[in-house]
Amino acid sequence: MALTGDLSTFNFVDIFQIIGRDKKSGILFVEWKDLTCAYYVKDGEFIFSRPVDKVYRVYADKDFDLLLNKLRMGPESLPRTVERFLISRLGMKEGIFSFTPGFIKYGSDYPVEYPIEHLIVLASRHLAPQEVQRKISDDMLLFERIPGTEEILSKAKINKFEERVLSLVNGNKTVFEIRQSAGLESLVVDRALYAFLALGLIRRKKKEVKPKQANITLELLTKIIERIKGL
Amino acid sequence: MKTIKKIKIVVAGPFAAGKTQFINTVSEIKTVKTERRTQQPSEKSVKDYTTVAMDFGKIRIDDEHELYLFGTPGQFRFDFMWEILGEGALGIIILVDSTDPSTFHEARKIINFFQSRFPVPMVVGANKQDLPNAWSPRDVMIALDISEEEGIPVIPVSAIDKESVKKALLTLLEIVKSNLTS
C-alpha cells in the first residue's frame, strides 16, 4: 500500500515519523519542481538517494547491490547522496511524495550516517509557523516524557536549545509555560516539541478526567449491540 | 403515548471524511441533512455540498429506544455544533479520509477537542479503505500521534459498506460495554 501526499500539507517530519516508527523498507519518491528523486529506505533508514528521470525505471532495478554495481558506487559513498539529495532539500515545501514499501531487495548492512531520528530533528528545524501549528495547536497542551527513550535521544543528536526544551517537558508545564521558561523564540520551542512528538520522546499528557459512566443499562446496551449486528 | 428514549452516537471528522455517507449506510430513515453549497475554493474542489449543522440518522432498537447517529460538520468554523452534538453522547466515532494525509492534522485537533470535553469512548475509523491509495489504519494511527495509552482503536472503515460501518459501531459499543462492566 503506497503512501502518497503533498509536502505542503504533510511535511518531511511527518513522513519520517511514519517510515521510522515501523522501520519500513522501500522507496520514497519525491517529485520536486526541478527534479524527481528516489530515496532508498532500509529498515526505516535512508541509505541512498538519487535523481531519476522516469520513476518507472527505478522499478526495473529490484536488487540494490546490483544497482550499486551498475552505478559504480561503493557503500562508502552512499551517505553523501543522502546529504546531497535529501538533507539539502528538507526546507523545500513544494513536492508530491509517494512511498512504495517492499519490492527492492537489499543486501546486508549499509552505512547510515544520518539515522532517521536525526533526520526528523534536521527536518523539524525547517518547519514554518503554520506547519508547527498543526501539532502544537494549543498553548495549553501538556506533554510528558516517554520513559525508556534514551537510544532514540542519542541518535537524534539534538542541539543545546532543543535539549533545553526537552528538559522543560515534565507533564506539568503547558506549551505556553515551556516557551516562557526556555527563553527561546517560540518557533524554536515549537519545532523542537514537534520533533520530539514525531520521535516518540514525548506524548500528550492524558488529562486526569474520570471517564464518564454511560447513562445506559447493560441490558439495553446488549440489545443495541444485537440490533446493530442484525442490521 | 410512549416516550421514546434516545441514545446518541456522534460521528465527527474533518471535511469530506465520509461522515454523511457513514450515517446513510446504516440509518433506517433517509438521513436528515443540512447541506449547503461549498463556498471556499479549497472545499469546492473536493465536493459541491457540505454539512453545515448536522446529519441525522436513526436506528430503532425496540418500542422504547432509538439509536440516533449525529454527523457533525467537518470545518472548525462550525465547532459550536460539535459542542452541542457531543453533549450526552454514548460515544464518538472520528472518521478520517485515509487517502488524504492533508486532513490528518485536522483530525487530531478534532480528537483533542472531543477528548477534552466529552470523556466518552472514542473510535477512529480510517475511512475510504476501498480506495487504492488509502493509508493503512496503522499508518493513520502513527500520523495522528495516537499512543497505546490513549485507548483509541483505529480501525479500517469503508463508509459505503454496511458491514464495515456496523463493525465500527460495534467496536465503539463494545468499549462502552467493557467500561460499564469493569
Please summarize what this structure is.
The complex is a heterodimer of chains A (231) and B (182). Chain A is 40% helix and 17% strand. Chain A contains eleven helices and seven strands.
Structural description of this entry:
With 231 residues, chain A is of the alpha+beta class. Chain A has 2 domains: 3-115, no CATH class; 127-204, no CATH class. Chain A is 40% helix and 17% strand. Chain A contains 11 helices and 7 strands. In chain A, a hairpin with a 3-residue loop joins strand 2 (26-32) and strand 3. In chain A, helix 1 packs parallel to helix 10 (186-199), helix 5 (116-124) packs across helix 7 (150-156) and helix 8 (160-168) crosses helix 10 (186-199). The mean pLDDT of chain A is 93. Chain B has 182 residues and is an alpha/beta fold. Chain B has a single domain, classed as 3-Layer(aba) Sandwich (Rossmann fold). In chain B, strands 2-3-4-1-5-6-7 form a 7-stranded mixed β-sheet, with helices on both faces. The termini of chain B are far apart. The mean pLDDT of chain B is 89. The chains are: A alpha+beta (231), B alpha/beta (182). Chain A binds chain B through residues 1-6, 9-10, 14, 17-18, 21-22, 134-135, 137-138, 197, 203-204, 206-207, 209-216, 218, 220-225, 227-229, 231, and chain B through 7, 26, 59-62, 65, 67, 88, 90-91, 101-102, 104-105, 108-109, 112, 115-116, 118-121, 133-136, 138-139, 142-143, 145, 147, 149-150, 162, 166, 169-170, 173-174, 176-177, 179-181.
